[in-house]
Write a structure and sequence with these properties.
Glutaredoxin, globular, 7-stranded mixed β-sheet
């Protein structure tokens, strides 16, 4: 039998300890899967200070839940496209609910006050909520900003139908050839199955709390 030295033993204990520390810094790797029932949430809307949830839109047929933020260059490039999605689909029963999941101690530009200020300056037509505990982002499995999730109302449940990128071009809507979110919502409106249910989100990593 191979003898374990005192140094090896100490290094092993240190490695385990570091592993536990790193685990405490990260959210659960698992999130909702396509077809899962999604739990509603209640977050503070930075636009008016009121609580917002999916239940805030009782007449909606579904929701475009968009994890985004102020500071990220990718989020900035997609901002107008997110605004356009709400302008088109809110009236058709699929409003945008934008959520910023970032820890403002890491990104001050994504603080509650700055989020509200930005939303008002840009005249958002949708809520811009602050996920202070980051529990909603972790539940959805959001990893990037932006990261889109489409939830549909089905038989009294909220069912996840799509998650991933908004389209296939981060530079501009004009250069995009595949419009994943729009195509998914169009399919749901038409009573059809969503053809592409999951894509890789492209953007800045969510800034998780350190403890």
């Amino acid at each position: 039998m191979k003898k374990i030295t005192k140094t090896q033993s100490v290094l092993g204990i240190v490695a385990v300890a570091v592993g536990f520390v790193l685990m405490s810094f990260a959210p659960s790797a698992a999130g909702y899967k396509i077809g899962d029932s999604v739990a509603d949430f209640s977050l503070k809307n930075t636009v008016d200070g009121k609580a917002v949830s999916m239940a805030s839109f009782p007449k909606a047929k579904g929701y475009i839940v968009m994890f985004t933020c102020n500071h990220c260059p990718f989020a900035k490039k997609y901002e107008q496209r997110i605004m356009d999605l709400d302008k088109k689909y809110a009236a058709l029963g699929y409003p945008v609910i934008a959520i910023s999941p970032n820890d403002p101690s890491i990104e001050p530009e994504d603080s509650y006050d700055e989020l509200g200020k930005h939303a008002k300056e840009k005249k958002y037509t949708f809520p811009y909520a602050f996920d202070e505990t980051q529990q909603v982002a972790a539940a959805f499995g959001a990893t990037k900003t932006p990261h889109a999730f489409i939830v549909n109302k089905e038989n009294g449940k909220l069912v996840l139908k799509y998650m991933g990128a908004i389209d296939d071009n981060t530079d501009s809507a004009e250069k995009a050839t595949k419009h994943y979110v729009a195509d998914a919502v169009d399919a749901l409106i038409g009573g059809k199955a969503v053809a592409v249910t999951e894509t890789k989100s492209v953007g800045c990593g969510v800034k998780w709390k350190k403890s």
